[in-house]
Each structure stands twice: as structure tokens, then as C-alpha cells.
Description:
The protein is α/β, with parallel strands linked by helices. The protein has helices spanning 20-33, 52-59, 64-74, 81-100, 108-119, 133-137, 142-149, 183-192, 206-214, 228-233, 248-252, and strands at 6-9, 16-17, 105-106, 123-126, 168-169, 199-203, 218-222, 238-240. The protein has two domains: 6-17 and 105-252, 3-Layer(aba) Sandwich (Rossmann fold), CATH 3.40.50; 20-100, DNA polymerase, domain 1 (Orthogonal Bundle).
Amino acid sequence: MRAFRGAIFDVDGVLVDSPHERAWRDTLRELMETHWADIRPETTYSPDQFTTQVYQEVIAGKPRTSGARAALDYFHVPVAETGVEAYAERKQRMVLELIEAGDFTAYPDALRLVLAVRDAGIRLAAASSSKNAGLMLGRVPLDSFAHDEGLDYDFLRPDLSLQEIFDVDISGRDLAHGKPDPEIFVTAASELGLPPRECFVVEDAVAGVEAARACGMAALGVARADDVELLSAVAADLVVTTLDDVDLDRLLEGRLTSGSRA
Length: 262
């Protein structure tokens, strides 16, 4: 049995309820109603077909351009590479506007797990493909959250942000390969000074679970979008609908099992 010495967290959908899904969906709808209206009959696209399940299975966890290409391929939108870039760039502008407007929230269960894991002496890394992850993490106040939850840890200090709790943050790093390639997680483990087998990954996307498994890391899937079966199908070691269900005692022994802390 391996003991976990490192925990690697995805950001969008794991730590924060980000506006990325909305931005991908709304941007494509705008393009299909304006610039791409003439090619829309050639596609399989309709607004109601761009579901959360499609987002989770096709786009989530991938770098921006890869996500744009995957969405357009899924809906059989016949545009050249310039169209992929246009979609990705317009989505980025929209998501930045939403983040600046504060249109996102942190998941309380994720913050509780981060604090508990940090208190246990496990090193922490944030590893999201999104270049917007740091902007959101820096706006989540951990000190006030812990106070409101009645949690007391000796490492807490005034104005401590979620971003600052991580030993390593490689979110948005320009890497050669995006998820489901494991490069992002291997890089995070390396910068934590740990071998992959001593780390576990917390992910909400199929591509992220596949990336973790590809480098021998344990994968903890959090199914926030009614996608337990989807994450289980790609061999996540444990799938929960809330991170409060992770058994902390077993986690510290190197095992991912459920056991509600409620």
C-alpha cells in the first residue's frame, strides 16, 4: 500500500464552479446565429444539444484550442483552423468577463478537503489546463471560509487565498500535450518533488481521470454533473458526488474510499 504524499487538484468543476461551460455554450450559440449561420444546416448543432454531459465528456479538462476543436468536431461544424481559433478566442473573452464580474463560486466540500489534506502534511498542487484558473483561485478567501465553517488550522492567516495554499500551481502552463495526456500531472508531481505513484488527483472530467491513470496516479473523481457512470467507466479509483464523502482516515493510509464525515 502506498502512502499519499501529494494531492493534485484540477480547478474548474473541482475547486470552483467556473463559468467555462456557460462561456463555451453561449459563444458557440452566438457564432452559429451570426458568423456561421450559413453553415449551420450542415451541422448537427442545436442549442439544446450542447448539454452538461457533452461539455463534461467532450470539452472539460482540455486546453482551450483543443476544447474548441473537440466541440466543433462533435457538432460537425465544417470550419477551418481559423474557425477553431475564433471560437477559442471569443470564448476566452467571455469567460474573462464572467470571472471579472465574480460569476463563479468555490465548492465548500472542496475547500474542506483542501484544508484537511494540507493539515495532514500532504503537499498540494493545482493543475488545470485553464489559463484562467489562477485568477479564480486568487479570489477565494480561505481564511474567512474557515472562520465561517468553524475550522481552526495553525497555517491559516488573514487574507489567505485558495491559490496561496498550494505548494505548486502549474495551471495554464504551456505544455506540449494536454489532457488526457498525463504531462500536466507528471509535471505537477515533479515540482512537488514526488514520484507520480505517491500522488492522487482530484478530477471531474473524463480527460483528467484518464491522464491521472496514464501516469500511475490514483484518481478521485467528483461527479458534480450526474456523471458517476462516466467517471467510473474510465477507471477512477473512487467516484463521489461530494468530496465530503472521502474517508480521510483511509486517505492518509493511501486508500481512496468513501465514508461520510457528516
